[in-house]
Automatic annotation (TrEMBL):
Organism from which the protein derives: Pseudonocardia oroxyli
Keyword terms: Heme, Iron, Metal-binding, Monooxygenase, Oxidoreductase
UniProt-listed Pfam families: p450
Matching Gene3D superfamilies: Cytochrome P450 (1.10.630.10)
One GO MF term: heme binding
Family stated for the protein in its record: Belongs to the cytochrome P450 family.
Name listed for the protein in its UniProt record: Cytochrome P450
Record-linked InterPro entries: Cyt_P450 (IPR001128), Cyt_P450_B (IPR002397), Cyt_P450_CS (IPR017972), Cyt_P450_sf (IPR036396)
Length: 390
């Protein structure tokens, strides 16, 4: 069977701003499409992406999950880019502070902070949902918990965005991000070390695990990336996307205000319609057929979560934002062995803000929006909104 090929550049400005027509084209062309520019074999259909995520033995993360071969080689062995048994060890240490019972402990603090920020912004009437609202919890509570100290907090967002940019191919964004990534890696290795970071914070706990012999010490600086890189922008974008969707669909906001049991479903539905992390990749460890299409061992396969989440075979009328759809099986947090380790934290932050906003806001109107251009993420950099209190 011949595999269709496509010259789409998923990392061009145009495709970052609106990938959906490309996703639709690829999804209809066949179960697997060869993206010639990046030499990736794209899976776009829900069932195929889900099956790949559930089969780490065949779809391996150990040769990294990004695009550029050099970056992939450099990042082999971090949590995201490893397979069991190494992955299980790293993930068990990394996941300790993110356990559900610890999330329950921090919930009152998150809810109080959500209450305070929503109160202040609604009183103001007009604010930037990306910077004033969505950044607040990740940049205060989550950054405190990670515990890298105050000194470089202002730089964290820039550093994290740069790390996402180098997850694409070597384009202009990638090149511009490289010095910032080096700066961050330098900070992680030299400055964010025990004695200079918050005692018993999440970062410090990694070093404590290394001291107990549970983890090679040289893994600690890159494992800090696992707390910083995915805990800021992803959640910030997810919150901002949610506000944009409710502004565009006021009837859905009214539904949510009338029935708060819809909050978890609203979170899943907004992540489904607008997935902040649209893709990662895997490498095949053996010859394998995807939906009847044979692929050779060593093939790098792109898992397009953003396309799978809008597969009409799975979700009828997929572009429609409908919080009564209850799509708890959406793939924006991945699935299987590497399923997002921070999803309970992200859900806690999103839910606390939604609840408080539902108490206070009757409708959102978007005054101005600036989309984010980043190789690994999708969403808004700015979203100026006016709220009607009520
Ligand atoms: C709405 C917000 C978030 C989204 C959309 C998101 C998305 C994802 C996705 C798609 C994966 C799977 C990667 C793969 O398939 O290889 C993942 C893994 C991961 N996420 Fe998240 N994430 C979010 C929030 C967070 C937070 C708050 C943290 C940390 C506190 C976090 C930490 C991680 C880590 C460490 C992994 C790697 C897990 C592993 O490889 O076993 N994420 N995330």
């Amino acid at each position: 069977m011949t595999i269709p090929s496509d010259e789409a550049d998923l990392f061009s400005d145009e495709a970052r701003l609106d990938p959906y027509p490309i996703y639709d084209r690829l999804r209809e062309a066949g179960p697997v499409v060869h993206l010639t520019r990046t030499d990736l074999y794209a899976l776009t259909r829900y069932e195929d992406v889900r099956a790949a995520l559930m089969d780490w033995r065949t779809f391996s993360s150990a040769r990294s999950v990004f695009v550029d071969p050099q970056t992939n080689a450099q990042l082999e062995g971090i949590t995201l880019c490893s397979d069991p048994p190494e992955h299980s060890l790293l993930r068990s240490v990394l996941g300790r502070p993110l356990r559900p019972e610890l999330m329950r402990d921090i919930a009152p603090r998150v809810e109080a902070a959500a209450d305070e920020i929503v109160g202040a912004l609604v009183d103001r009437g007009r604010f930037d949902a990306a910077t004033d609202l969505a950044e607040h919890l990740p940049m205060t509570i989550v950054s405190d918990l990670v515990g890298l100290g105050e000194a470089h907090r202002g730089k964290m967002l820039q550093w994290a965005a740069a790390i996402w940019d180098v997850q694409g191919p070597v384009n202009e964004r990638f090149t511009a991000a490289t010095p910032l990534v080096e700066e961050f890696l330098g900070f992680a290795a030299e400055e964010a070390v025990p004695g200079r970071i918050v005692p018993d914070g999440w970062a410090d706990q990694l070093y404590q695990a290394a001291d107990r012999g549970e983890l090679p010490r040289e893994k600690c600086p890159v494992m800090m990336l696992d707390y910083v890189t995915p805990s800021l922008d992803t959640t910030i974008l997810a919150i901002t996307n949610m506000i944009a969707l409710f502004a565009a669909h006021p009837e859905q906001w009214t539904l949510l205000r009338e029935d708060r049991s819809l909050v978890p479903h609203a979170i899943n539905e907004s992540l489904r319609v607008e997935s902040p992390v649209p893709q990662f990749s895997r490498v095949l460890t053996e010859d394998h057929e995807v939906d009847g299409v044979p692929l050779a061992a060593g093939t790098r396969v792109a898992l397009l979560y953003g396309a799978a989440n809008r597969d009409p075979r799975k979700y009828p009328d997929p572009a429609r934002f409908d919080i009564t759809r209850r799509p708890s099986d959406q793939l924006a947090f991945g699935r299987g062995e590497h399923v997002c380790i921070g999803m309970n934290l992200a859900r806690l932050e999103m839910s606390a803000l939604l609840q408080r906003l539902a108490d206070r806001v009757e409708r959102f109107d978007v005054l101005a929006a600036r989309p984010l251009l980043n190789n690994g993420l999708r969403g808004f950099e700015h979203l100026e909104v006016q709220v009607t209190a009520g």
